[in-house]
Amino acid sequence: MHIGNVNIKNNVILAPMAGVTDMPFRILCMEQGCGMVYSEMISAKGIHYNDEKSYKLCDVDENEHPAALQIFGSDPDIMAETAAKLDKTNADIIDINMGCPTPKITKNGDGCALMKKPELASKIIKAVKASTSKPVTVKFRKGWDEASANAVEFAIMAEESGACAIAIHGRTREQFYSGKSDWGIIAKVKSSVAIPVIGNGDIFNPEDAKRMIDYTGCDAVMVGRGAQGNPWIFKSISHYLKNNEILPPPDLNEKISMILRHMNMLIKYKGVHTGILEMRKHIAWYLKGLPNSSAVRNMIFKCTSPEEIENILLNSFR
């Protein structure tokens, strides 16, 4: 599979998730067989005003290619300026977020709010496309709500405006992450455009991925919440799609080793205080389903050093 001139390793892709898909997590997912990774959302206005935190989100490690940087905003000029600046990074793709449902994003006319203004969305895609040598992709949803589900028309517009690929989440903005993802709309989008279509929504195991591909004909699947605490899902899905065989899940020792490595990578990247704070949610996801996990999680949430966390993990499940 290719997106523009970028070769995608396989058709199982990590979704962009705010507060989750930072560099350490992306590297771990790539090591576990992910075909391509997306950054957290990056504010175009943040880049415009030279915000240090926004620029930090643009870091791409040599071990996480191919990687897409996802930008959001609703001003074509600022989006174009941001794309030109990110053209100098070692990212492979520039993605435009037109699907984020959160109020703090949509109230400014960004994210999924752009699905209500396809003409403006087209101007943004064209402006970004003209400002970068990298392939440009767009991620969006079924629509703002069920009454205005315009994903097919939006996909055609994105292709005509210069997008090299699109990712579609089968929920409306009104749904957020509740209910079921409508894979039928993904199938309709796929049959309406010639560029690669990445299906997103409700991929939590290898069987889900195969069902989506079989049902929609999409070129790739995008895994979001299913990857939280489970970077192994990429290897599992890829293996299943190739061999029709379910790999055994990671055992306890493998899980603990992954948690400790993830924590150490986060601390190295963000410092001890921030690294431990941000690692707490990841640890909760990693431990989900294990016996006594609630008590262990509560103990870890009180820890302030990596040594304390390691000691609890190594001694709580024996």
Q: What's the CATH topology name of the largest domain? A: TIM Barrel
The average pLDDT value, as a whole number, equals 96
Rg over alpha carbons: 19 Å
- In the CATH hierarchy, the architecture of the largest domain is Alpha-Beta Barrel
Q: Estimate nothing, just give the exact number of structural domains.
A: 2
- So what's the CATH class of the largest domain? Alpha Beta
Measured by DSSP, the beta-strand proportion falls in: 15-25%
**Whole-Å distance between the termini?**
44 Å
Q: Element order, helices and strands?
A: EEEHEHHEHEHHEHEHEHEHHHHH
CATH homologous superfamily placement of the largest domain: Aldolase class I
Structural class: alpha/beta
Shape: globular
Number of helices: 14
Strand order of the largest sheet: 3-10-9-8-7-6-5-4
Description:
With 318 residues, the protein is of the alpha/beta class. It has 14 helices and ten strands. The N and C termini lie far apart (44 Å). α8 (183-190) links the parallel β8 (165-172) and β9. The strands form two sheets. The protein has an eight-stranded parallel beta sheet. It has helices spanning 23-31, 44-48, 52-56, 76-86, 103-106, 118-131, 151-161, 183-190, 206-216, 233-243, 252-270, 272-287, 293-300, 306-315, and strands at 2-3, 6-7, 12-14, 37-43, 67-72, 93-98, 136-143, 165-172, 197-200, 220-223. It is globular. The mean pLDDT is 96. It has two domains: 2-243, Aldolase class I (TIM Barrel), CATH 3.20.20; 252-315, Orthogonal Bundle (Non-ribosomal Peptide Synthetase Peptidyl Carrier Protein, Chain A), CATH 1.10.1200. The relative contact order is 0.11.
